[in-house]
Design goal:
Pfam families: AHSA1 (PF08327). Belongs to the AHA1 family. This is SRPBCC domain-containing protein. Residues 22-158 form the Activator of Hsp90 ATPase homologue 1/2-like C-terminal domain. The chain is globular and about 40 Å long. It is α+β, with helices and mostly antiparallel strands and 163 residues long. Strands 1, 2, 3, 4, 5, 6, 7, 8 and 9 form a nine-stranded antiparallel β-sheet that branches. It has a single domain (5-162), classed as 2-Layer Sandwich (Alpha-D-Glucose-1,6-Bisphosphate, Chain A, domain 4), CATH 3.30.530. The protein has four helices and nine strands; from the N terminus they run ββααβββββββαα.
Length: 163
């Protein structure tokens, strides 16, 4: 298993998340896109449990997940699936509402890519922002530890699926 690399380039208002999983792309794709599997790894478990309310994985379909964040309350994450190019990747929107505010009507865009390396899969997730200030505010929020935890949960789940 490799380490997760999180990068914030100086020339684009994006955050990239990169990780190589020791599993074939078909398995990684299945675990990343099917509702029953997403429920097993999405959202950092250290801050609370997750419930999948909607996960209609098709172009134009919506997704909605609720996480009970300890000592804070419920945070709802939501978006739409814009483009799907199975098993190469997909594009979705991402927003949230809860005690930290809301991005309703101002959702971000994310791109998920899965490169076939034979017995391994290179994953690259990209969060796109309108400007550097927005990107830097997300980075300053401490999102990195949660993102690393979620990606690690995914890596462990894919290993379990292989057994």
């Amino acid at each position: 298993m490799s380490e997760t690399i999180i990068a914030t380039p100086t020339d684009k208002p994006i955050i990239t998340f990169t990780r190589t999983f020791k599993a074939p792309r078909a398995l990684v794709w299945k675990a990343y896109t099917e509702r029953e599997h997403v429920a097993q790894w999405w959202g950092p478990r250290s801050i609370g449990p997750i419930e999948i309310l909607a996960h209609d994985f098709k172009p134009g379909g919506s997704w909605r997940y609720v996480q009970d964040v300890r000592d804070v309350g419920q945070v709802t994450f939501f978006g739409r699936f814009i483009e799907i190019d199975a098993p190469e990747g997909y594009v979705n929107t991402f927003g949230f509402e809860g005690p930290f505010g809301s991005t309703e009507g101002n959702e971000g865009r994310e791109t998920q890519r899965f490169e076939d390396l034979g017995e391994s899969t290179l994953y690259t997730g990209t969060s796109h922002f309108d400007d550097f200030a927005s990107r830097d505010a997300v980075v300053a929020s401490g999102m990195e530890s949660g993102a690393r935890e979620q990606i690690e949960q995914f890596a462990n789940y894919v290993l379990e699926m292989e057994q």
